[in-house]
Write a structure and sequence with these properties.
The chain is built from no helices and 11 strands. With 119 residues, the chain is mainly β.
Length: 119
């Protein structure tokens, strides 16, 4: 089992910055993808960004150039630096770890952290 603990959410004015952190513990396979998703009220959960252990990152078009994902493999921690925040970034942000076992993938989710951007 994998446990994910997120931190760093909060209230910020438009144009401001926040940094989210997610620490993973438990049964972490050596090949995994860590990422951030978000869900705004009335909308489906969507990918924000994810990153492989080698540092290859993938971003949603809506955050490209504003958000940066990174990870510390030694500490099984993933970060999301969010700059130039907009009101439309307001959502609950969830951390996800995907253990990439041979032939199957197992996903684990964090509890979520609220990010609110005031305009």
């Amino acid at each position: 089992q994998v446990q994910l603990v997120e931190s760093g959410g909060g209230l910020v004015q438009a144009g401001g910055s926040l940094r989210l952190s997610c620490a993973a513990s438990g049964s972490i396979f050596r090949i995994n993808v860590m990422g951030w998703y978000r869900q705004a009220p009335g909308k489906q959960r969507e990918l924000v960004a994810d990153i492989t252990p080698g540092g290859s990152a993938n971003y949603a078009d809506s955050v490209q150039g504003r958000f940066t994902i990174s990870r510390d493999n030694a500490k099984n921690t993933v970060f999301l630096q969010m700059n130039s925040l907009k009101s439309e970034d307001t959502a609950v942000y969830y951390c996800k770890l995907s253990n990439m076992y041979p032939g199957t993938v197992r996903d684990s989710w964090g509890q979520g952290t609220q990010v609110t951007v005031s305009s």
